[in-house]
Write a structure and sequence with these properties.
- The complex is a heterodimer of chains A (about 290) and B (about 300).
- Chain A has about 290 residues and is mainly α.
- Chain A is built from 12 helices and no strands.
- In chain A, α3 packs parallel to α6 and α11 runs antiparallel to α12.
- The radius of gyration of chain A is 24 Å and the shape is flat.
- Chain B is mostly helical.
- Chain B has one domain: MetI-like fold (Orthogonal Bundle).
- In chain B, about 70% of the residues lie in helices and about 0% in strands.
- The longest helix of chain B has about 35 residues.
- The chains are: A mainly alpha (about 290), B mainly alpha (about 300).
- At the A-B interface, α1, α3, α4, α5 and α6 of A face α1, α3, α4, α5 and α7 of B.
């Protein structure tokens, strides 16, 4: 290649890269700017800069649109689901990777098969199961338990994330040499201590990957929570959807964009802190709901 | 050695909770999907009547189902082709060229993937807004002054393409990072000798990079099919809810609408079964068609 054509080629590459970057930065940045605009500023040129910082949008979103409550709900559900998931999946993954027992093959096949079941297909049967359960409980103790319960939502999140998490973690445990455990046994460690104090610390990188991916999917999930939480209590994305619908009826733009910022900001901050781990972890997992 | 009972107890305590929860929340609901698809079951009354294959018979005469079928196929094909092309090109650029701010671009391109589909839907609703939207305001530069605003989400023919743009925007970064990871495994020496022979960049891409990461590309094809079916549901639910007049209905949004909103559980589950089998059939077919002898390097 001669010099001019090489220059042109480089130019083309930078233009392409910048075009894609702009197409991502502009809409996201625009939401942040729009969230501090007054309602009247939305009529007219959408590219105009905000005239001032109109914090009232956030106050409205938190108080009137109840985004503050939804935020807390999302925090509770996400934290609980992550905790449940780790407590359940870590021992299961370790045992499946290390021990042969009657039914171990069946368990492996079952969880592998679970990778292909998407929650979108089974969310209605799960909902109906809870409807039945609540109907039965209503007759016995006079009130329902399963629907509109944040703990149940977290339990469903954790359960449906099990196959992928176990697949990822046991894939890691298999790679650790058996010598570590043998040494631990010789030193007099029991099965439990070996697992918790020897093996789990070594699995830290993949545990972090698991936490990151599942945090994102739990925090952003809305089909399950929309279906199972039918009352006033909602998670953040469903609350945002309600804001979107409300905005169509009564043009309350500022509040909607403030809500968007509230949903986006924690994820963006986390991403900036851990982006390297996240994209590295992807090649480890390489699967997505 | 440790006692046998202690070992068995340890294994049981570790594995049983996961297995039980998996059976309750994944296995039984999946079995129920198939079982319920053979019942006529509506509303909260417990009137289930076994109708065998009848739900499927109704399904294959349902115009609305065919429309959702058409939309889903269109989305799968377009989103896959466009996303894959972009993701491959950008992955090749970022991993083969010396670029200033390479890290910056990689970080930015991945952002859409971490955002909730609801957030992306809200952003794109704002972009597509007929009166105050960004897209129409850009286009107004090129159009006549009093031209009617384009209804990106309100026009029956445009709405699916508007969805395609949002979905591609969301997916490029994810697949790009994935292709980059496998391109990093292609040995540098191949490119060096290609350079010596005077092969151009585009030639190198099609004759070295692409064949060597082909296994990875094949895997992502399966991902594309399955995730487009799932993600299109999330996008439709948050962005259009099937409007206008069912023009943006896709497989799973139609299923959800029938089963949850409309409470025709049996019929909804029959749709689920057909979509489930269809997606696996399609993935298997694509897998078969794209089979090549794996190249070693």
């Amino acid at each position: 290649m001669d010099k001019t054509s090489r220059r042109l080629y480089k130019l083309f590459i930078y233009v392409a890269l910048l075009a894609l970057a702009v197409s991502i930065i502009v809409p996201v940045g625009w939401v942040f700017l729009a969230s501090i605009k007054e309602n009247s500023e939305f009529y007219g040129n959408p590219w105009a800069m905000p005239k001032g910082v109109y914090i009232q949008n956030f106050i409205d979103a938190f108080a009137e649109a109840r985004m503050g409550d939804y935020f807390m709900n999302s925090v509770i559900v996400t934290a609980l689901a992550l905790l449940l998931l780790l407590v359940l999946a870590l021992p299961a993954a370790y045992v499946l990777a290390r021990y042969r027992f009657p039914g171990s093959k069946l368990c492996n096949i079952m969880f592998m098969g679970g990778l292909f079941i998407n929650v979108n297909y089974i969310v209605v049967p799960i909902f109906l199961m809870f409807v039945d359960g609540d109907r039965w409980l209503n007759q016995v103790i006079g009130k329902g338990f399963f629907l509109n319960n944040l703990f149940i939502v977290a339990l469903v999140y954790a359960s449906t994330a099990l196959p992928f998490t176990i697949y990822l973690l046991s894939g890691f445990f298999i790679t650790i040499p058996k010598d570590y455990e043998e040494a631990a046994f010789v030193d007099g460690c029991g099965y439990w201590r070996t697992m918790i104090q020897v093996m789990m610390p070594m699995a830290r990188p993949s545990i972090i990957t698991v936490i990151l991916f599942n945090f994102l999917s739990f925090w952003n999930e809305y089909i399950i929570s929309m279906t199972l939480l039918t009352g006033e209590e909602q998670t953040l994305p469903v609350g945002l959807m309600r804001l979107m619908q409300a905005q169509q009826a009564a043009a309350n733009y500022g509040r909607l964009y403030a809500g968007l910022v509230i949903v986006m900001l924690p994820v963006l901050i986390l991403y900036i802190c851990v982006q390297k781990k996240l994209t590295e972890g992807m090649s480890l997992g390489g699967l997505k709901g | 050695m440790k006692s046998k009972r202690g070992k068995n107890g340890f294994i049981a305590v570790c594995i049983l909770p996961s297995v039980i929860l998996f059976i309750i929340f994944m296995l039984i609901p999946t079995v129920n999907v198939f079982k319920m698809s053979m019942y006529k079951w509506g509303g909260f009354s417990n009137n289930k009547t076994f109708v065998g294959m009848n739900n499927f018979k109704i399904l294959f005469q349902d115009d609305k189902f065919y429309r959702s079928f058409q939309n889903s196929i269109l989305l799968i094909v377009l989103v896959t082709i466009v996303t894959m092309a972009f993701a491959l090109i950008f992955a090749a650029i970022l991993s083969r060229e010396k670029i200033k701010g390479q890290n910056f671009f990689r970080i930015i391109f991945y952002i859409p993937n971490i955002l909730s589909v609801v957030v992306i839907s809200a952003i794109f609703s704002a972009i597509y807004d007929p009166n105050q939207g960004l897209l129409n305001s850009i286009l107004s530069v090129f159009r006549a002054k009093d031209a009617a605003p384009i209804l990106w989400l309100g026009n029956q023919r445009l709405v699916v393409y508007s969805l395609v743009i949002a979905m591609v925007w969301q997916a490029i970064g994810y697949y790009m990072v994935m292709y980059m990871a496998s391109m990093a495994g292609v040995p540098e020496s191949l490119y060096e000798s290609a350079n010596l022979e005077g092969a151009g960049k585009i030639y190198q891409f099609f004759h070295i990079t692409l064949p060597l990461i082909w296994t990875n590309v094949r895997t992502t094809l399966t991902f594309f099919i399955i995730s487009t079916i799932n993600l299109s549901f999330l996008f439709v639910q948050a962005m259009t809810s099937g409007k206008p007049d069912g023009a943006s209905e896709v497989f799973l949004s139609y299923m959800y609408g029938q089963a949850y909103t409309n409470s025709s559980y049996g019929y909804g589950m029959a749709i689920g079964v057909v979509v489930f089998l269809f997606s696996f059939g399609l993935a298997g077919l694509v897998n078969l068609v794209t089979k090549r002898e794996p190249l070693e390097f």
